[in-house]
Amino acid sequence: MTIRILHTADLHLGSSLKNFGELARERRRDFLKTFDRIVNLAIKREVDCLLVAGDLFDATQVDAETVGRVQDGFERLSGRGISVVLIPGTHDNVVSAESVYNRTTFAGAHILKDPVVTDPFALEIRGATVHFYGFAYRSDRSREALESMRRREGGGIHVGLLHGSLKGSPEWEMRKKDIPFTTAELAALGLDYIALGHYHNVGCLEDQGRVVACYPGSPEGKKFGENGERHVLIVEVGEGSAVVEKVPVQSRIMDELTVDASLFPEAGALEGELARLASPDLIARIRLAGTVEDPLDIANLAGRLQGKYAWLELLDETEIYNSDHVKRMEREDSIRGLFIRKVHARFEKAESEAEQELCRDALKLVMGRFMRGGGD
Question: What is the mean pLDDT of residues 136-141?
Answer without folding.
Answer: 90
